[in-house]
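anyone seen this seq b4? input:
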Amino acid sequence: MSSPGDTAVLVLAAGPGTRMRSDTPKVLHTIAGRSMLSHLLHAITKVAPQHLAVVLGHDHERIAPLVADWADALGRPIDVALQDRPRGTGDAVLCGLSALPDDYAGVVVVTSGDTPLLDADTLADLIASHSAAPAAVTVLTTTLSDPSGYGRILRTQDNEVMAIVEHADATPSQREIREVNAGVYAFDTAALRSALNRLSSNNAQQELYLTDVIAILRGDGLAIHARHVDDSALVAGVNNRVQLAQLGAELNRRIIAAHQMAGVTIVDPATTWIDVDVSIGRDTVIQPGTQLLGRTQVGGHCVVGPDTTLTDVSVGDGASVVRTHGTASSIGAGATVGPFTYLRPGTVLGDDGKLGAFVETKNATIGTGSKVPHLTYVGDADIGEHSNIGASSVFVNYDGETKRRTTIGSHVRTGSDTMFVAPVTVGDV
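predicted toks r here
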């Protein structure tokens, strides 16, 4: 029996993802602000395995940088193994094992890179269950109302797992089985290596199936355990855009529910989308038609929406943001933004400031209590505290070759229809 630290995780991400009909590798498709592979790596790193390897094949040069970024962020190695041509999941695991030390003898967890909702708790439970029992393999299973496309779990009359049969190879009666293979396993390393060396490609796909290892190990007289996952979404895979959207909607539902339970009012969850890395303070109200994306941070007691999209935007406590599109910007506490306001990257609005209707800002700092009420473009500018910019003003920042800045001091009042042709400086009042 291995100790909890003697765990290696192999992520199978070598498949071409043909059914996605995409130029983007399947595992790089995103839901809730992260790629599917990033979701999985985030969960795996919480389990803190001794070894972690990702098996790549198709478009490996496009996926490897993501793996390297994760390794850098974590400060730990993540090995990459290459499957030079698709020969099935069994061959992919053989490639993954080559990334482990030759003398490694702990638990090997194998999972697919397209299960974005698989969480750390489920992985930890699998590892603990396998480590506590004398089994050669523990496989996660789940029950689906429509199991089409999934491998079926075959059991004996004593309810013991005896094999997994892939959908393409299943008989009509076997296809009636609703308990399916979740594609997540914990193996004894020695047993896994032995069984992989005896795999055959005599099947409908002419590939080496990892699932055939189950029957081989049972034939060796070794114990096969199964761990049923009641929440099937946690182990659901993605093979096409329909499934991607379905899992994206399910993850969004869970994210919204977590915010609601933490004290955030979300008026219409059906029209609200929140990425997984977004934070929202208590007693904030999110109105219908709102998208909070990237690493947006919203303070407490705010009102955001309706019809607002914020990406990587910081919103201070008590601010109001209505019908606004903002990216890489900062909104101060008590500030008011909208309606129909466009915050481009580099916008910083101070506490109690105002950006009103049909105002566009870019690379601009608007100080505490300052107001740009309506019909104005503010680009490459610095506005001091408690100033007011009149309607229909334009900060003319580009002369066709160079962008220049405009500086407006504090307590300044400018009239309507003013063109500030940069560089311009207006002093404090």
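The helical segments are 36-47, 60-74, 89-97, 120-132, 189-196, 212-219, 241-261. The mean pLDDT is 96. kinda curious what u guys think
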